Amino acid sequence: MKAINIIWDIDNKEDLNFLPTEIEIPKGMIDEEEISDYLSNEIEFCHCGFELV
Description:
Number of helices: 1
Order of helices and strands: EEHE
Largest sheet: 3 strands, antiparallel
Structural class: alpha+beta
Radius of gyration: 11 Å
Shape: elongated
Mean pLDDT: 93
Distance between the termini: 6 Å
Helix content: 10-25%
Strand content: 25-35%
């Protein structure tokens, strides 16, 4: 599974140059709240949403 179209919660638009728009989700992780926490913890930025494929 992969998180795509991640919308990062940023103040500085230049940060977008360094943030991914998609991230591979570890196997077995299916709960959206757990995935949400994983994205924020992995990249160390909060996000405002994402899609799963």
